[in-house]
Amino acid sequence: MSNQLDLDNDSPLLGSTKNERTLMAFSFFSLSRDRLTELPIYDDGKHWIEITGTKYGVANIWDKEILIYLQSLMQERVNRGEKMSPIFQFTGNDFFRICGTKPNGSAYDRIEESLTRLKSTMIKTNLLDDDGKSGETRAFSWIDDFKIKWREKRNGEKVMQAVVVCMGLRLYNAILNNKCMLTYDSRYFQLKPLEKRLYEIARAHCGNQPGFKMGIEKLHKRVGCITELRFFKSKLVTISKRKAQLPGYAISVIDPRIQRSLDAKKPKPSGQTPVKSYLVYFYPTDKLNQLLPIEKVPTLEELGDCL
């Protein structure tokens, strides 16, 4: 990329932020700032994901914001009919503007740290196939290369002028080859890690449906939460009780035995429901008037969801 800084900046990003749907539906990033060298392997019998890192740690949910930003710049190129390339040049200030981050010295340092993790994290998965059908398993990194250009001020302070990133070709080709790009609500960037993942899952699957449900164990894996299931459930319940839960979406944590108790012919359930039996309901808040009775809310499989 020695001559790429001669190119014009792709920033500012004028439109909305976007992400590829698969990267929203599944967990590829740590939800913690702790330095983790690997994440638990995701395997649902159909899809699997293995994430490993180096001494810098695996990429986390905050690092993902750079990928969201890059994909959004890429979509704007597509919309303008420009020649496509996996190389992007942008300013740190524009990235901070989109993410709502104050542009100071530590924030600029975090860009370099994030790019380092994105480059050094290795992903092995049978998702993101270039044609969506081949079922290949490949190892790749989120970005193939990056470069930061600095200018030194008179007082010796370094000022970031531009960032050049070569998006990983595996991800670049997956997005380019007819993958589904979804728009984010701008409030996403102010959410906490768990809330970000719940929002992404809701956004990836709700579509025009009045809602869907998912078993709490499956959701636990899809979110990428490494805490015990009972603590995960407790956090979900806390979020579900808030007046403002997620941008455009809400969740409910339901004891499945309630459905059975709605049938007057069946005896009222006794005892305690195992945590793993709970169901989590997602629904768009703009479709509250279309809500189905809880016993009729479909699963992703019943919706025919490809993911």
Task: Offer a few descriptive terms.
single chain, 307 residues, alpha+beta, Arc Repressor Mutant, subunit A, 2 domains, 4-stranded antiparallel sheet, 3-stranded antiparallel sheet, 10 helices, 12 strands, 20% strand
- Sheet with most strands: strand arrangement: 2-3-5-6
How many domain modules?
2
What is the percentage of strand-forming residues? 15-25%
Q: What is the gyration radius calculated from CA atoms?
A: 21 Å
Structural class, from secondary structure content? alpha+beta
* CA(first)-CA(last) distance: 36 Å
Query: Largest sheet at a glance?
Result: 4 strands, antiparallel
Q: How many β strands by DSSP?
A: 12
- Secondary structure: helix percent: 25-40%
Helical element count?
10
Description:
The protein has 307 residues and is α+β, with helices and mostly antiparallel strands. It folds into two domains: 4-183, no CATH class; 191-303, Arc Repressor Mutant, subunit A (Orthogonal Bundle), CATH 1.10.10. Helix content is 32%, strand content 20%. It has ten helices and twelve strands. The strands form four sheets. A four-stranded antiparallel beta sheet has the order 2-3-5-6, covered by helices on one side. Strands 4-8-7 form a three-stranded antiparallel beta sheet. Strands 10-12-11 form a three-stranded antiparallel beta sheet. The protein is elongated and about 80 Å long. The model has no long low-confidence stretch (mean pLDDT 89).
